[in-house]
Write a structure and sequence with these properties.
mainly beta; 4-stranded antiparallel β-sheet; 28 strands; globular
Length: 358
Protein backbone atom coordinates (compact mmCIF):
# COMPACT_ATOMS: atom_id res chain seq x y z
CA UNK A 1 0.00 0.00 0.00
CA UNK A 2 1.48 3.35 -1.02
CA UNK A 3 1.51 6.46 1.14
CA UNK A 4 -1.31 8.06 -0.86
CA UNK A 5 -3.66 5.05 -0.84
CA UNK A 6 -6.24 4.37 1.87
CA UNK A 7 -9.30 2.16 1.95
CA UNK A 8 -11.43 4.76 3.73
CA UNK A 9 -10.88 8.25 5.10
CA UNK A 10 -13.50 9.43 7.58
CA UNK A 11 -13.85 12.96 8.92
CA UNK A 12 -15.41 13.70 12.32
CA UNK A 13 -16.43 17.20 13.43
CA UNK A 14 -17.78 18.23 16.83
CA UNK A 15 -20.50 20.88 16.79
CA UNK A 16 -20.73 22.59 20.17
CA UNK A 17 -24.03 24.39 19.61
CA UNK A 18 -25.79 21.53 17.83
CA UNK A 19 -24.56 18.97 20.40
CA UNK A 20 -23.55 16.61 17.60
CA UNK A 21 -20.61 14.96 15.91
CA UNK A 22 -21.04 15.01 12.14
CA UNK A 23 -19.19 12.48 10.01
CA UNK A 24 -18.10 12.42 6.38
CA UNK A 25 -16.33 10.27 3.83
CA UNK A 26 -13.35 12.02 2.30
CA UNK A 27 -13.13 10.81 -1.28
CA UNK A 28 -9.46 11.21 -2.10
CA UNK A 29 -9.86 10.49 -5.80
CA UNK A 30 -12.75 12.89 -6.44
CA UNK A 31 -11.76 15.50 -3.87
CA UNK A 32 -15.19 15.42 -2.24
CA UNK A 33 -16.62 15.45 1.29
CA UNK A 34 -19.64 13.15 1.42
CA UNK A 35 -21.91 13.61 4.49
CA UNK A 36 -22.67 10.35 6.31
CA UNK A 37 -24.87 11.60 9.15
CA UNK A 38 -24.55 12.87 12.69
CA UNK A 39 -24.37 11.48 16.20
CA UNK A 40 -26.11 13.14 19.15
CA UNK A 41 -23.78 13.90 22.05
CA UNK A 42 -23.91 16.04 25.16
CA UNK A 43 -24.34 19.79 25.23
CA UNK A 44 -21.24 21.76 24.23
CA UNK A 45 -19.23 18.86 22.84
CA UNK A 46 -15.82 20.12 21.79
CA UNK A 47 -12.39 18.45 21.86
CA UNK A 48 -12.01 15.08 20.16
CA UNK A 49 -9.24 12.50 20.19
CA UNK A 50 -8.68 9.27 18.27
CA UNK A 51 -7.09 6.13 19.73
CA UNK A 52 -3.69 5.19 18.28
CA UNK A 53 -5.19 2.08 16.63
CA UNK A 54 -8.01 4.18 15.07
CA UNK A 55 -10.68 2.00 16.66
CA UNK A 56 -12.18 4.59 19.02
CA UNK A 57 -13.11 8.27 19.07
CA UNK A 58 -13.25 10.16 22.36
CA UNK A 59 -15.36 13.30 22.81
CA UNK A 60 -15.22 15.73 25.72
CA UNK A 61 -18.50 17.32 26.82
CA UNK A 62 -17.96 20.78 28.33
CA UNK A 63 -21.29 21.04 30.15
CA UNK A 64 -22.34 19.47 33.44
CA UNK A 65 -21.92 16.65 34.09
CA UNK A 66 -18.45 17.11 32.57
CA UNK A 67 -17.50 13.84 30.92
CA UNK A 68 -15.79 12.00 28.11
CA UNK A 69 -17.79 9.77 25.78
CA UNK A 70 -16.13 6.76 24.13
CA UNK A 71 -17.27 5.74 20.65
CA UNK A 72 -16.27 2.67 18.67
CA UNK A 73 -15.57 3.48 15.03
CA UNK A 74 -17.06 1.00 12.56
CA UNK A 75 -14.14 0.25 10.19
CA UNK A 76 -16.48 -0.39 7.26
CA UNK A 77 -19.04 2.42 7.52
CA UNK A 78 -17.32 4.95 9.78
CA UNK A 79 -20.39 4.97 12.05
CA UNK A 80 -19.97 5.79 15.72
CA UNK A 81 -21.36 3.56 18.47
CA UNK A 82 -21.26 4.84 22.04
CA UNK A 83 -19.60 2.21 24.23
CA UNK A 84 -19.03 4.14 27.44
CA UNK A 85 -18.67 7.42 29.26
CA UNK A 86 -16.86 8.61 32.35
CA UNK A 87 -16.81 11.77 34.41
CA UNK A 88 -14.03 14.31 34.01
CA UNK A 89 -12.92 16.63 36.85
CA UNK A 90 -14.24 19.75 35.09
CA UNK A 91 -14.65 21.31 31.62
CA UNK A 92 -11.74 20.23 29.41
CA UNK A 93 -10.35 22.32 26.54
CA UNK A 94 -8.21 19.51 25.13
CA UNK A 95 -7.99 15.72 25.34
CA UNK A 96 -5.39 13.32 23.91
CA UNK A 97 -4.36 9.71 24.43
CA UNK A 98 -0.87 8.58 25.29
CA UNK A 99 0.99 6.68 22.56
CA UNK A 100 -0.05 3.29 23.93
CA UNK A 101 -3.75 4.16 23.94
CA UNK A 102 -4.08 3.12 27.60
CA UNK A 103 -4.55 6.59 29.09
CA UNK A 104 -6.45 9.75 28.26
CA UNK A 105 -4.94 13.13 29.12
CA UNK A 106 -7.14 16.20 29.55
CA UNK A 107 -6.41 19.90 30.12
CA UNK A 108 -8.82 22.37 31.72
CA UNK A 109 -8.70 26.06 30.80
CA UNK A 110 -11.10 27.18 33.54
CA UNK A 111 -9.99 24.65 36.15
CA UNK A 112 -6.24 25.30 35.79
CA UNK A 113 -5.51 21.59 35.90
CA UNK A 114 -4.72 18.47 33.92
CA UNK A 115 -5.92 14.90 34.47
CA UNK A 116 -5.13 11.31 33.49
CA UNK A 117 -7.93 8.78 32.98
CA UNK A 118 -7.43 5.04 32.38
CA UNK A 119 -8.61 3.44 29.13
CA UNK A 120 -9.57 -0.23 29.49
CA UNK A 121 -8.64 -3.14 27.22
CA UNK A 122 -11.81 -2.53 25.19
CA UNK A 123 -10.74 1.02 24.35
CA UNK A 124 -13.25 2.62 26.74
CA UNK A 125 -12.67 5.41 29.25
CA UNK A 126 -14.84 3.78 31.90
CA UNK A 127 -13.63 5.33 35.16
CA UNK A 128 -12.98 8.75 36.63
CA UNK A 129 -9.54 10.31 36.40
CA UNK A 130 -6.86 8.48 38.36
CA UNK A 131 -4.71 11.59 38.69
CA UNK A 132 -5.46 15.31 38.78
CA UNK A 133 -2.68 17.91 38.90
CA UNK A 134 -2.86 21.68 39.33
CA UNK A 135 -1.09 23.67 36.62
CA UNK A 136 -0.44 27.29 35.81
CA UNK A 137 -3.43 29.39 34.79
CA UNK A 138 -5.58 28.28 31.85
CA UNK A 139 -4.22 24.87 30.87
CA UNK A 140 -5.02 24.51 27.18
CA UNK A 141 -3.32 21.52 25.53
CA UNK A 142 -1.63 18.32 26.65
CA UNK A 143 0.36 15.76 24.64
CA UNK A 144 2.91 12.99 25.15
CA UNK A 145 6.32 13.03 23.51
CA UNK A 146 6.85 10.68 20.54
CA UNK A 147 8.59 8.11 22.78
CA UNK A 148 5.75 8.32 25.37
CA UNK A 149 8.19 8.99 28.22
CA UNK A 150 7.33 12.64 28.75
CA UNK A 151 4.23 14.85 28.71
CA UNK A 152 3.81 18.58 28.18
CA UNK A 153 0.90 20.92 28.81
CA UNK A 154 0.43 24.58 27.94
CA UNK A 155 -0.71 27.22 30.45
CA UNK A 156 -2.03 30.14 28.44
CA UNK A 157 -2.50 32.49 31.39
CA UNK A 158 1.03 32.11 32.72
CA UNK A 159 2.89 31.93 29.39
CA UNK A 160 4.54 28.63 30.17
CA UNK A 161 4.81 24.99 29.14
CA UNK A 162 4.65 22.47 31.98
CA UNK A 163 7.09 19.53 31.77
CA UNK A 164 6.35 16.05 33.15
CA UNK A 165 7.82 12.59 33.27
CA UNK A 166 5.35 9.88 32.33
CA UNK A 167 5.21 6.25 33.47
CA UNK A 168 3.33 4.50 30.68
CA UNK A 169 2.77 1.41 32.82
CA UNK A 170 1.00 3.15 35.71
CA UNK A 171 -0.10 6.27 33.85
CA UNK A 172 1.40 8.52 36.52
CA UNK A 173 2.76 12.01 35.80
CA UNK A 174 5.52 13.57 37.89
CA UNK A 175 7.00 17.03 37.45
CA UNK A 176 10.27 17.19 35.59
CA UNK A 177 13.03 19.55 36.71
CA UNK A 178 12.57 22.35 35.94
CA UNK A 179 8.80 21.96 36.05
CA UNK A 180 8.16 24.47 33.25
CA UNK A 181 9.64 26.70 30.56
CA UNK A 182 8.43 30.15 29.58
CA UNK A 183 7.20 31.52 26.28
CA UNK A 184 7.41 35.23 25.49
CA UNK A 185 5.30 37.41 27.77
CA UNK A 186 1.61 37.67 26.80
CA UNK A 187 1.99 35.07 24.05
CA UNK A 188 -0.79 32.94 25.52
CA UNK A 189 0.52 29.46 24.57
CA UNK A 190 -2.39 27.41 23.21
CA UNK A 191 -1.77 24.41 20.93
CA UNK A 192 1.57 22.73 20.25
CA UNK A 193 2.97 20.01 17.98
CA UNK A 194 6.17 18.01 17.71
CA UNK A 195 8.27 18.18 14.55
CA UNK A 196 8.24 15.11 12.31
CA UNK A 197 11.65 13.97 13.56
CA UNK A 198 10.70 14.68 17.19
CA UNK A 199 13.58 17.11 17.73
CA UNK A 200 11.46 20.24 18.15
CA UNK A 201 8.21 21.42 19.69
CA UNK A 202 6.25 24.26 18.08
CA UNK A 203 4.00 26.28 20.41
CA UNK A 204 1.31 28.60 19.08
CA UNK A 205 0.66 31.87 20.92
CA UNK A 206 -3.08 32.51 20.85
CA UNK A 207 -2.67 36.19 21.80
CA UNK A 208 0.55 36.97 19.92
CA UNK A 209 0.23 34.87 16.78
CA UNK A 210 3.83 33.77 17.25
CA UNK A 211 5.22 30.26 16.99
CA UNK A 212 7.81 29.51 19.64
CA UNK A 213 10.25 26.71 18.78
CA UNK A 214 11.87 24.59 21.46
CA UNK A 215 14.53 21.92 21.08
CA UNK A 216 13.40 18.67 22.75
CA UNK A 217 15.95 16.54 24.62
CA UNK A 218 14.57 13.00 24.48
CA UNK A 219 16.93 11.88 27.26
CA UNK A 220 15.93 14.44 29.89
CA UNK A 221 12.51 15.33 28.50
CA UNK A 222 13.31 19.04 28.75
CA UNK A 223 12.63 21.87 26.32
CA UNK A 224 15.13 24.58 25.41
CA UNK A 225 14.10 27.79 23.65
CA UNK A 226 15.43 27.89 20.11
CA UNK A 227 13.57 30.79 18.51
CA UNK A 228 10.37 32.72 17.91
CA UNK A 229 8.68 33.20 14.54
CA UNK A 230 5.74 35.16 13.20
CA UNK A 231 2.91 32.71 12.74
CA UNK A 232 0.30 35.39 12.04
CA UNK A 233 2.35 38.48 11.10
CA UNK A 234 0.84 41.96 10.98
CA UNK A 235 0.81 41.92 7.18
CA UNK A 236 -1.43 38.85 7.30
CA UNK A 237 -4.06 41.04 8.97
CA UNK A 238 -3.78 43.98 6.60
CA UNK A 239 -5.57 45.08 3.46
CA UNK A 240 -2.58 44.29 1.25
CA UNK A 241 -3.58 40.64 1.43
CA UNK A 242 -7.22 41.29 0.64
CA UNK A 243 -8.22 40.82 4.28
CA UNK A 244 -10.24 43.42 6.22
CA UNK A 245 -8.20 45.70 8.50
CA UNK A 246 -7.53 44.31 11.96
CA UNK A 247 -8.96 45.63 15.19
CA UNK A 248 -6.15 47.54 16.86
CA UNK A 249 -5.26 46.84 20.47
CA UNK A 250 -4.32 49.66 22.86
CA UNK A 251 -0.61 49.32 22.03
CA UNK A 252 -1.47 49.75 18.32
CA UNK A 253 -0.47 46.18 17.46
CA UNK A 254 -2.91 44.00 15.53
CA UNK A 255 -5.26 42.05 17.76
CA UNK A 256 -4.68 38.33 17.17
CA UNK A 257 -6.86 35.36 18.07
CA UNK A 258 -4.93 32.31 16.89
CA UNK A 259 -6.52 28.91 17.35
CA UNK A 260 -5.25 25.69 15.80
CA UNK A 261 -1.93 24.49 14.39
CA UNK A 262 -0.90 21.41 12.38
CA UNK A 263 2.22 20.14 10.68
CA UNK A 264 2.25 18.75 7.13
CA UNK A 265 2.74 15.02 6.66
CA UNK A 266 6.35 15.49 5.53
CA UNK A 267 7.15 18.04 8.25
CA UNK A 268 8.04 20.80 5.78
CA UNK A 269 5.10 23.13 6.43
CA UNK A 270 3.28 24.41 9.49
CA UNK A 271 -0.28 25.75 9.33
CA UNK A 272 -1.88 28.21 11.78
CA UNK A 273 -5.52 29.31 11.96
CA UNK A 274 -6.54 32.82 13.10
CA UNK A 275 -10.15 33.62 14.00
CA UNK A 276 -10.57 37.40 13.79
CA UNK A 277 -9.86 37.38 10.05
CA UNK A 278 -10.84 33.77 9.26
CA UNK A 279 -7.47 32.83 7.78
CA UNK A 280 -4.90 30.06 7.82
CA UNK A 281 -1.26 30.98 7.36
CA UNK A 282 1.32 28.68 5.85
CA UNK A 283 4.81 28.57 7.37
CA UNK A 284 7.81 26.91 5.77
CA UNK A 285 10.00 24.87 8.15
CA UNK A 286 13.74 25.12 7.59
CA UNK A 287 14.88 21.50 7.50
CA UNK A 288 18.34 22.39 8.84
CA UNK A 289 17.41 24.64 11.76
CA UNK A 290 13.86 23.45 12.41
CA UNK A 291 12.66 27.05 12.51
CA UNK A 292 9.43 28.03 10.70
CA UNK A 293 8.96 31.24 8.70
CA UNK A 294 5.80 32.87 7.35
CA UNK A 295 5.05 32.08 3.72
CA UNK A 296 1.42 32.70 2.73
CA UNK A 297 -2.11 33.56 3.87
CA UNK A 298 -5.32 31.82 2.75
CA UNK A 299 -8.90 32.88 3.48
CA UNK A 300 -11.00 30.04 4.91
CA UNK A 301 -14.29 29.38 6.73
CA UNK A 302 -15.62 31.93 9.22
CA UNK A 303 -13.83 31.83 12.60
CA UNK A 304 -11.71 28.70 12.03
CA UNK A 305 -11.28 27.20 15.47
CA UNK A 306 -10.22 23.79 14.19
CA UNK A 307 -8.86 22.07 11.11
CA UNK A 308 -7.03 18.86 10.23
CA UNK A 309 -4.77 17.42 7.54
CA UNK A 310 -5.22 13.98 6.01
CA UNK A 311 -2.45 11.53 6.80
CA UNK A 312 -1.25 11.48 3.20
CA UNK A 313 -0.93 15.27 3.33
CA UNK A 314 -3.08 15.85 0.26
CA UNK A 315 -6.15 17.37 1.91
CA UNK A 316 -7.11 19.81 4.65
CA UNK A 317 -10.55 20.03 6.28
CA UNK A 318 -11.44 23.34 7.93
CA UNK A 319 -14.32 24.06 10.33
CA UNK A 320 -15.58 27.54 11.16
CA UNK A 321 -17.47 28.18 14.39
CA UNK A 322 -19.62 30.74 12.59
CA UNK A 323 -19.87 28.91 9.27
CA UNK A 324 -22.60 26.52 8.13
CA UNK A 325 -20.16 24.51 6.00
CA UNK A 326 -16.88 22.68 6.26
CA UNK A 327 -14.23 23.46 3.68
CA UNK A 328 -12.21 20.80 1.88
CA UNK A 329 -8.89 21.98 0.47
CA UNK A 330 -6.44 20.20 -1.81
CA UNK A 331 -2.86 20.65 -0.61
CA UNK A 332 0.10 20.93 -2.97
CA UNK A 333 2.60 18.80 -1.09
CA UNK A 334 5.53 20.42 -2.89
CA UNK A 335 4.71 24.09 -2.20
CA UNK A 336 2.49 23.75 0.88
CA UNK A 337 -0.24 25.86 -0.73
CA UNK A 338 -3.85 24.71 -0.55
CA UNK A 339 -6.96 25.40 -2.65
CA UNK A 340 -10.62 24.89 -1.84
CA UNK A 341 -12.23 22.08 -3.84
CA UNK A 342 -15.43 21.26 -1.96
CA UNK A 343 -17.63 22.04 1.02
CA UNK A 344 -20.26 20.20 3.03
CA UNK A 345 -22.86 21.28 5.60
CA UNK A 346 -22.16 20.80 9.28
CA UNK A 347 -23.74 21.67 12.63
CA UNK A 348 -23.64 24.92 14.59
CA UNK A 349 -20.47 25.84 16.43
CA UNK A 350 -18.21 23.47 14.47
CA UNK A 351 -14.87 23.50 16.26
CA UNK A 352 -12.87 20.26 16.24
CA UNK A 353 -11.85 18.09 13.27
CA UNK A 354 -10.37 14.58 13.22
CA UNK A 355 -9.54 12.59 10.07
CA UNK A 356 -9.28 8.83 10.50
CA UNK A 357 -7.79 6.48 7.90
CA UNK A 358 -9.03 2.89 8.11
Amino acid sequence: MTQNTYINQYVYVSNAKSNTITRYLLDDKLGKLLPLGSTKTGENVMPLSVSPDKSHLYASVRSEPFRVISYRIDPISGDLKQVGEANLPTSMANIATDKSGRFLFAASYGGNLISVSPIDDNGVVAREAQQVLDTGRNAHAIHASPDNRFVFSSSLGDDEIMQYRFDEQSGQLTSNSPASVKTEKYAGPRHFVFSKDGQYVYVLGELSGTVTTYAFDNKTGLLTLKGESEGVPAKALSLENGVPPSIKASNDHPKVWAADMHLSADGRFLYVSERTKSIITTLSVDQKTGLPSYQKITQVEQQPRGFALSNNGRFMVVSGEKDANLGLYRVDVETGEFTKVDEAPTGEGANWVEIVNL
